[in-house]
Structures are given as C-alpha cells and as structure tokens.
Amino acid sequence: MPFKLIPMRETILAGAIVVLLALIASRFPGFVAPSNLANVFNDTAPLIILALGQMVVILTRCIDLSVAANLALSGMAVAMLNVAMPGLPIPIIIAIAVMLGAAMGAINGILVWKLSIPPIVVTLGTMTIFRGIIFLISDGKWVNSHEMSAAFTGFSRTEILGLPVLSWIAIATIAVFGVMMSRTPLGRSVFAVGGNPHAAVYTGINVGKTQFLAFVISGALAGLTGYLWVARYAVAYVDIAGGFELEVVAACVIGGISIAGGVGSVGGAVLGAIFLGVVKNALPVVNISPFWQLAISGSAILIAVAFNAKGGGKKGRIILKTAEVSS
Amino acid sequence: MTQRPALANVPVVSLDEITKTFPGVKALDQVKLDLYPGQVTALVGENGAGKSTTVKILTGIYQPNGGTIRINGEPVTLNTPDDASAAGITAIHQETVLFDELSVAENIYIGHAPRTRWGLIDRAEMHRAARLLLDEIGAPLSTSAQLRDLGIASKHLVAIARALSVDARVVIMDEPTAALSHKEIEELYELVEKLKSQGKAILFISHKFDEIFRIADRYTVFRDGAFVGDGRIADIDEDGLVKMMVGRSVDHIFPERDPVVGEDVLQVVGYEHPTEFADIGFTLKRGEILGFYGLVGAGRSEFMQSLFGITKPSKGVTKINGKIRIIRSPADAVGNGIVYVPEDRGKQGAVIGLPIFQNITLPSLGRTSRSGFLQLAEEFKLARQYAERLDLRAASLDQDVGNLSGGNQQKVVIAKWLATQPQVIILDEPTKGIDIGSKAAVHEFMVELASQGLSVIMVSSEIPEVIGMSDRVIVMRDGRIAAEVSGDDLTPETLVRHAAGITAAPQPQEA
C-alpha cells in the first residue's frame, strides 16, 4: 500500500526526542530506564489525549482554548458526584464526564457553526464561563482525596500488563484516532475542511457541521481527561489544569499540526505531547530550574513552526497566475 | 453636443507595442493605445481581450515586458502606482477600492493627505479640499461621513473624487456605470463632459455599446490581447465595432461530434434570486452540451451555484427526469446527479494537501466505505479508474495534488465528479487559464461525456469555445436569459449582440 505511515516531519520530531533522551541519559542513565520512561508516558497521558482532540479542532481551522476549563469543570462535577454518591460505578462516572465534556464542546461548536463567531473568541469566552461555573457549583471549595471513594481515585492507577490504566486509555485514544483520521469519512472531511473549505463546500461537505463535530470530540476528550486528572491527583478545585490549554496547543504545533488547518497527523500530535512531557520530566532530574521549561517549550514551538513554514512553502504557491489576466 | 475644445492631435499618453506575458499566457501582444487630451477613448474588447491588464500597466501595477509608454511624447517607466499618479494617471476601478472605516475626506486623501508643518495630517485643509472636489463633481456628501454608511453610488462618487484629488491628466474609468442607476449614469456622463472640457484625457472601458456611442470620441479595439484597430467613433457603427471585436481566426479545431440528444434530463423553471438573477428557465436533454454565454457579471456563475445548492434561490423549481427535486445543499445536488466543476479551481476545486486519490474520492466517501470505515483499496480502485479515464499524468495517486500542473489539477477535479456517476455536469469556464493542449483534451473529453449520455452545461466566456462545443447556447444579460441560440444563428455576432444588449440586429432573432 503506497501510504505514508510515518511522514517526514514526524520522523524528525521522533529523532529530536531520541537525541534529547540520549543527552539526558549521558548524565542520568536512570532516566531512560523502561520503568521511568513508562512513568514519563503516564505523566504525559492527559496531554496526549487532549492534544489529539485539539488536533482535530485545529485541522478544521479552529482552536479550542476552553479544553483545560472544560477538564476542570467535568472533573469537579464527577468529583462532587462521587462525594454525593460514592457507590456509583466508575464506568458510569466516566460516561458522565465524557458526556459533560462533549456537551461543553457542543456549545463551542454551535456558536462557531450557527453564529459564525471566530473560534478563538468563542472558546476564550467559554473558558472563562466554565471556570466560573466550577466556582459556583463548588462554592470555591476543594474536593479532597479523603472525600473521594477508593475506586474513584484507584481506577486510573490500576496496572494492567505493567502499565497504569491512565496510560492504556491514552494508548486506546491514539489507536481510535489513528483509525478515525485515516479510515472514516469524518476524518477525511476534517482534512478537506481545513485544507480547502471552499472546495469542501462544493464536494457536499458541511464545513460548519464538521467544525462542530471537531469541538464535540475535543470536548468529550476534555471531559474524559477531567475525570482522569481529578482521580490521579485526588483533588478537585477551581484552578486545576490552569493554563494547560496552551500546553495542549503547543503540543499540536510542535507536532506539526498547521495552525492554518488541513495539515497534521495523529503521530505528530502524540510526538509533540511526548516531547513536552520528556522536557518537563527531565528538567528537575538534570537540576535545571522549571522556568527553563517554559523557555525550552517556547523555543521548540518557534523551531517547529519555522520548520513547518519552510516545509509548507510550496503549498501556498499560486498555481494559476494566469487567472489574473482576464479583463 | 455642447461646445468642445478643439481636438488636439498629440496624445498625452500613448502605449507603443506594449507586451505583457504571464507564465504560459501572453496577455498583451504589442498593443497600441493613444489617449488625447479633452477626448474620451473607449477601449473595447471581449472578456480576456486584455483591457484590465492595460489598465494595470497604465497605473503602474504591472510592468510591461516590452514596448514603450510615452507621456507627452517622452518615454517613461511606471514602476509603481505612485509613479503613475505622479505622471497624472489615475483610475476609477471596477470594484471601488475604498476604506469602509474611514471618512469621505480620509478616503479621498489617503496616501497624499495635506500635512501641517509638524508633518501631521492637516485635517482642516483636507476637509476643505475634499469639499471643493466633491462640489466640483456635484456630490452632495458630507466630508466627515463614514464611508460605511454610504450607498454604492455615493461610494462611486468618492472614488471619482479620489481619482481627481491628484492632479490628473488622464482618468481611467473601468466599467464605471456597472453599479449605477439610470439617473446616476446621466450624472456620470455630465461629469465626463466636465472632465473633457478641463482638457483631461479619459480612457473609458465599457461593454455597453449605447454608452460608448453616447460618450466616446475615439475607440480602440483589442482582441485576445492584440490591437485590432482604432479610430474616431464618428467613423464607425455598432456593426463595425462588433465585427472588429469578434472577427478572429479559428486558432483551434474543435472535435467533431454527432449529437445524439435524448429525453429531458433537467428542467429548470422560474429560478430567481433577490439580487443576482431572475426568471431563469430551460430544459437540458440527455447527451446535450448546453453553452451559457454572457459578459462577466451577467449572473451565469451565480445561477449555476444556485442550481448546485450553494446559494438559495428565492423562487424556482428543479425537475430531474420529470420529477421535482429539492436542492438545498451541494450534497442534495450530488445526490440528485448534478455536479459542478467551479471556475476557480485553486479556491473551489482541489484540496491542496490531500493526495490525488483522496481528492478524487472525496464526494464518493459513502461508496468507498464499509460500515463507516473507508476502504483504502476501494478508494484506490475508484481513483485509478477515473484517473486512467482522464489520462491523468501523475507519478503516483498518493502524490499531493498541489504538485500537479493546472491542467492535471483540472482533471483531478473532473475525475472527482465523474466518480459520483452524475447525470448533469456543470463546467464553469472549463478551459480558462490552461494551455492549448490541455484545452483540446478537455474539449474532446466533453464530447466523450456527452456521447456517453451525460448532459453537459458549459459556462464559457470564450466565443470560439461556446460556438465550437455547444449544441445550443443560452445568452445571459443582467441576470436574465437574453436569448437562446442554436443552429445557423450560432455566430459570434449574434452572441455578442445579445450579451451586450444591442437591439437593432440585422438578422432576425430566434423566438
């Protein structure tokens, strides 16, 4: 099958991660021990899940800045639900978190689709609203670990085949998205809408609806991550994952998802997230101030965008100069 | 006519053997154009004759590849629009280029506003000067009004004032009456007379013969980017001008075909749109090639987009195979066997960034998937089938469509639509901007499609193509059907006449 599974950009990013790991290993060999790498992956799992949702949104020429607030609100809601009804089975908790998140994503999507408000404005607004709602429902109080049931906090840490459930959920999400993006009409529509919205319209694809669905997907994953986050850290309060939306967007950009839409891959988003995860976990080990992490993430974003701009240069060329000739 | 200054014999601006090429196309080939002070010169030609390119060269937007521009006999180069306005050449454009968020005075003086001695904009002086200009052209507008709040006609007056705000010797008017009402046109004529009496040279570009004969002193005719002739309006009539516009050599042999026309496939009744078109009705038969001719802006593409479900008509019924079908979206149209290959394929055709095969299967994803999952093997099979049928030249179907040539991209777009197995295919300017070889291929392909029982609607502004390819031609003018022409009536003269609205036709019109 002449189908590129690992495109060029992803190979370069994977290489960068390997080089980074090698540099760290040269001084701290313990960092690359399989058990530690598994920990790093587990720590990065929420970022990976959110980056995949964000990727779909960005591919359709939108952006979702409300993911972290959505995560926090879904997380708070299920944490309070757990306190109120400790016996509620975890699968139901997860289903509720996903549905809550999807509903919040649907709000974003409807505003973008039906009212044509720019996505950055919509999600900036809903981001603030979601945080406000957390305060209203929680009265600004924390839900602490001792209030949560053992099953609630234990689920994501349960190990299956040596990996925690949190990691397995990330792996499952990657697999689902891999299939969705390459093998379903929705995935194909997402690329078409971002690549050339005008052409997509002529092809019979509903651009607004596709963008709506992208927001729902991103929201659902934010809801899922909301539960996982709250369970993992065993605490829920207004400000959890504050500013995390920028890290999610950064993972996508580093992973080669074009902010102009239409270009990107599941592999890229995952590698972008892992790159940030490795940097974040390695800096304390090599004893560098965490403030450097921000500078390194920032530089990585600029380098990645410069790379993409150069690689994408050919894409924007005008094929039909002659169209101007007509009088 | 009122008193007129003596016709000067020395052109203030002259283009001499000007040539302009774009990659693959010669837009202007050694054209000549003289503009005399105190006279209106009409530049006449079909769509694509090179009129707009000429304007862009005169205003310093394009630089010619050859030839000389002379101002008062002196050769000059106009490298930028600034050079052109310094030379006293100013243009009022087809689409008025103005700033909605600025005031009338700011729009008139943007870029050359009067300054105070501190280098700041002298607002008082700007408003005073703008007032003078507006009074001069008889525009009852406030200089501090926001442009956003003005109507089209008032905006046009601002554009004219702006053109006159530089010390203009040459005023170019590119289809100035296109958006104006009858009364406003009369006022514009008065203004033109006034400018003439001030000794300005005016280049007047228009498709409307009545206004050319009403207002112009001289004419220059271009055809396919070449100079055909010029002279005094007094020495020519409409017929002569039409002949000069269309009388071209046949540079391209069209494929022979034996139309086997079957039963009615598509019936359109009473299509109407609030602003773009009205009262469109016709019948399309199986295996027929129906041409749509008209000037740019006659509403052809707008109507086609409505037929395809992109814009909603306010009225109108579509019947397919005798049954009424409601088309509200492109998906409905495709589902009912109507497909549309748009004119601007860069913008509306191919999805650059997706591989060829994915572009081809994009509207057929339902057919290439099983229980919600796309079958790549099926997709490749479908894509290969149509790529071969269209003789698409590509290294691999997995290649990004952006790496293909214009002609091959066009094939991808057509393949995409054929893969949906349509009954009616609408081709909007199918050969615009592609080389002659690809053109012939597209033409042959259209004949092949028709012979296989597909009905083709071809929107084209190229007269030879319209005549060479169509079984029947519908001419549109100002959003309405002006005429339906077929058989022996299908001549360049008839088409141009109906498109331009010349009523006094020497030959009897078809009912």
Describe the structure.
The complex is a heterodimer of chains A (327) and B (511). Chain A has 327 residues and is an all-alpha fold. In chain A, 70% of the residues lie in helices and 1% in strands. Chain A has a single domain, classed as ABC transporter involved in vitamin B12 uptake, BtuC, CATH 1.10.3470. Chain A has 13 helices and two strands; from the N terminus they run ααααααββααααααα. In chain A, helix 2 packs across helix 8, helix 2 packs across helix 11 and helix 3 packs across helix 10. The longest helix of chain A has 27 residues. In chain B, the strands form five sheets. Chain B has a six-stranded mixed β-sheet, with helices on both faces. A six-stranded mixed β-sheet of chain B has the order 16-19-20-13-21-22, sandwiched between helices. In chain B, strands 2-1-4-5 form a four-stranded antiparallel β-sheet, covered by helices on one side. In chain B, strand 1 and strand 2 form a beta hairpin. In chain B, helix 13 packs across helix 14. The N terminus and C terminus of chain B are likely disordered. The interface between A and B is large, with 39 and 59 residues.
